[in-house]
Design brief:
Helix content: under 10%
Strand content: over 45%
Largest sheet: 4 strands, antiparallel
Structural class: mainly beta
Number of helices: 3
Number of strands: 45
Shape: globular
Distance between the termini: 25 Å
Length: about 450
């Protein structure tokens, strides 16, 4: 019997990483957010704003899960990108002064003070950052940095700036490291159309590239994903998003109907944000997720949806944060450019994989059974609660009872639920186990 139940667990249960809805983050910001990054136990946001949560915080602010704060005096104009390198928070953008320190378009924050990275750039904004175990890489619209010629891309070794070969003929918008090589995406056409890779000494093409701008790059499930404004990758149709396996390009389902501006791997899913309203043929305005095989919405559906683009993601304290140009989410007018998922990820995802708890059958028709061994979870004499929520976060079923002896085994009559996907939360003492269940 035990082996049968374990088999049911492996074959029937699907990991849960979705969230049901979004809420504002203490008033948000007064204008667009372009980047999110977690550093030193805080969530940092950057962009075009000058205030966050009613606090004066020009172009960069921090959130500690309670209040917004400025970051050491903030910047004199836009911050476009954030990254961690050598234990410091790196900020890049259009600014020339940050925290009262002269720093031309790029600076570092050690948690207390700002300082410059060399003499920075003098002619244009830095929009993209990445790093490997040795170097920090910066891309943007510049042609010189640190007093040297560097066309649209350069690297920092902790002391000085260096060019990466001849660079490019136009702006770099995205950088990432994949399989030990640096990949750059943007508006350029030299070396490779809109995307190229650097092996430490030379640039080379990436399978013929794509036919228009690349705005974002992300590694997911062992492949490199590119998002942007293109309609073909490697000569084949790929609408705004494509994946590279190291040898060839392929489409990501049927793609999206407008620009992809940002992507982030969160748990088992790739979260995608941009200007689109359709992803994989599904209505999913401005945000969607891809699980490696199919597209699904990410909580922005029907009456509950973002009103403008999502341009950045982060995970912080077990929640997904989305930021961008939007100002509302459905009827919630407090989601000014940043929102937090009401459903936690991280911790619940880890608990979700706990094999001590079995939920079967799944999918179910009328009844669903929850079973676990009392001694495995120390539940004797403790209250056990089961709660089921729909995709909008509404509780549609709940049951609590004492479990004093023996194994916990309850068959729940939930045949009244409509066909669809639900989240079951089993609360045992201080543990919360979340399962995705499907009503046939």
């Amino acid at each position: 019997m035990k082996k049968i139940l374990q088999l049911l667990l492996v074959t029937a249960l699907i990991p849960c990483l979705s969230f049901s809805q979004w809420t504002g983050v203490n008033g948000g910001t007064d204008y667009d957010i372009t980047g999110l990054h977690v550093y030193g136990g805080k969530l940092y946001a950057c962009g075009y704003f000058t205030g966050a949560g009613g606090v004066t915080a020009p172009y960069i602010a921090s959130w500690n899960d309670t209040v917004w704060a400025d970051v050491g005096g903030s910047a004199n104009t836009t911050v476009k990108a954030l990254h961690t390198y050598s234990g410091n928070l790196i900020a890049a953008g259009g600014f020339s002064v940050i925290g009262g320190v002269t720093a031309s378009h790029i600076a570092k924050w050690n948690g207390t003070i700002w300082s410059a990275l060399g003499s920075g750039t003098t002619d244009a904004t830095i929009t993209a950052l990445a790093s490997d175990s040795v170097f920090l890489y910066a891309g943007g619209g510049f042609t010189s940095i640190g007093g040297i010629t560097a066309n649209f891309i350069a690297r920092w070794d902790g002391t000085s700036w260096f060019p990466l070969g001849a660079g490019f003929d136009n702006a770099v918008y995205a950088l990432t490291v994949y399989n030990g090589e640096l990949y750059a995406g943007g508006a350029f056409s030299t070396t490779s159309s809109h995307i190229a890779k650097w092996n430490g000494s030379t640039w080379s093409a990436v399978g013929g590239g794509v036919n228009d701008n690349v705005y974002t790059l992300q590694v997911y499930n062992g492949e490199l994903y590119a998002g942007g404004f293109f309609t073909a990758a490697g000569g084949a149709s790929a609408l705004q998003i494509a994946k590279w396996d190291g040898t060839s390009w392929s489409a990501v389902g049927s793609g999206t109907n407008a620009d992809v501006n940002t992507m982030k791997k969160i748990g088992n899913d790739l979260y995608v944000g941009g200007n689109f309203t359709m992803a994989g043929g599904l209505y999913s305005p401005f945000i969607a997720k891809w699980d490696g095989a199919v597209w699904s919405d990410a909580g922005s559906v029907a009456a509950n949806q973002f009103d403008l683009s999502v341009d950045a993601f982060a995970t912080y304290n077990s929640h997904v944060f989305a930021a961008g140009r939007f100002s509302t989410f459905g009827s919630d007018t407090s989601a000014n450019h940043i929102a937090r998922s009401s459903f936690t990820v991280g911790l619940d995802d880890k608990i979700n994989k706990d094999k001590r708890v079995i939920v079967y059958p799944n999918p179910f028709a009328n009844n669903i059974t929850v079973i676990f061994e009392k001694q495995s979870l120390n539940t004797g004499g403790k209250k056990v609660s089961v709660e089921i929520r729909n995709i909008f976060g509404q509780i549609v079923f709940s049951k609590s009872d004492e479990n004093s002896t023996g194994n916990y085994l309850k068959t729940l009559d939930v045949g009244f639920l409509k066909t669809g996907i639900y989240l079951m939360k089993i609360i045992i003492n201080d543990e919360r186990i979340v399962k995705k269940i499907v009503r046939e």
